[in-house]
Amino acid sequence: MVIADRIPARTALAAAVAEPGGEPDEVDALTLGRRIRDRRTALGMTLGELATAIDRAPSQVSSIENGKREPRLSMLRTIALALGTTVDDLLRADAPSERAALEIAVERAQRGPVFAALGLPTFRVAKGMSDQTLQTILALHHEIDRLHRERAATPEEARRANAELRAEMRARDNFYPELEAKAAELLEAVGHTGGPVSHQLVADMASHLGYSLHYVGDLPHSTRSVTDKRNGRIYLPTQQSPSRDSRSPILQALASHLLDHDEPRGYADFLRQRIETNYLTAAILLPEQAAVRFLTEAKNLRRISMEELRDAFAVSYETAAHRFTNLATARLDIPVHFMKVHESGTIIKAYENDRVRFPSDALGAVEGTTVCRNWTARTVFDVEDRFSPWYQYTDTSSGTFWCTSRIEKAKEGEYSVSVGVPFEHVKWFRGRETPHRAVSRCPDESCCRRAPGDLADKWADASWPAARTPTSLLAALPTGTFPGVDQTEVYQFLEAHAPRD
Ligand SMILES: [Zn+2]
Q1: Do 214 and 257 fall into the same domain?
Q2: Rounded to two decimals, what is the model's pTM?
């Protein structure tokens, strides 16, 4: 069995040749094969003669020399003996000559995923090929590889980081006591005694932390606020979009300061900072103590409602719904899920600890995938009445869930914001008497991803839609220390606005 043979061989080989920082991989088998062949030909030995000497089939020796197969350590000893050398010499990591190194590099490139993706036939490196030919092939390969990485690295890194963060949030029931404590401390410092947090109180928080607020008309377009840490100033736009809460950008700027955020080290760091910042902002706008009191009362009356939470604290529906997920499990014993879904069906944000099964891609990323058409997050778009809350029961592959959803408008289109709980917890919520029911068989494709048979039969060969290319398909994720922010613009802005002395 080739496979069974490979595993111990690889381990022995890897252990023998592993160098600090160097990953043992196929190059080792290739280099080893080359060393064996070089040694054999130097001795004037044929492939058949070596095969006989070690009591193996010539084809096996050939596979080893071509680096297609790694010999077990015991066989390697036999080979070394037959070639009058040592295992250590055969396992040296460097190629026997410069030409061999070049040939090995070309061979290795051909076996990698980048070359495979090009769909080109592989070739054997012949003796007659000049070094220059091989160098050019190698240079071309490296350039294609570089272009691939440049294009693919960022979105993939972001998606992976996002999936990891969601797993962490799930493990903590999306509740962060240390952030709650920071929010409580700041609220107490400015004498908040309950009720909604006013704009004036937020300004007081800023001055308590040593910052003054400056409203300007020329804030760099890629920012929501800019903080001058040297002079203790927070710059904010004079023009607020009417749907935006004027307190949020100030609190977000203060949150970064309170959390001692440094320049993000990468995308994962950036995402984590953003989650912490948003959490702290929401924890200030809906203080834990007051919000838990409000929600517990509602639970006792069996009428928990996102709209009432929103109105009681004068925040957006999304902020209220999101804040509910922080407190629901940790403080009210209710497992919950949350989704923000674009009108196209694409998931923008998602959180769950109630076993609802979100769609996900191969990397485990939920954001960017499409949610079932029968879920509340989608059906709400078909509801004409945009003022009343929308409730629905949905039977899914992981149980029955009850969800409430509301549409919010943004400049990129409409979004639904949904909160849902498993069937056994619906008794605490207003809207449980809804007659709306749906069945979702996703991820079974026949649920909503494939066209119904009769329609498909009729139209499959007679239709040609011209796709409107989604902008997100081609746009690379923003790059830079603060993704999407133009540093030059920010520095020039700060320079222009800094106080002169
Ligand atoms: Zn579906």
Answers
A1: yes
A2: 0.66
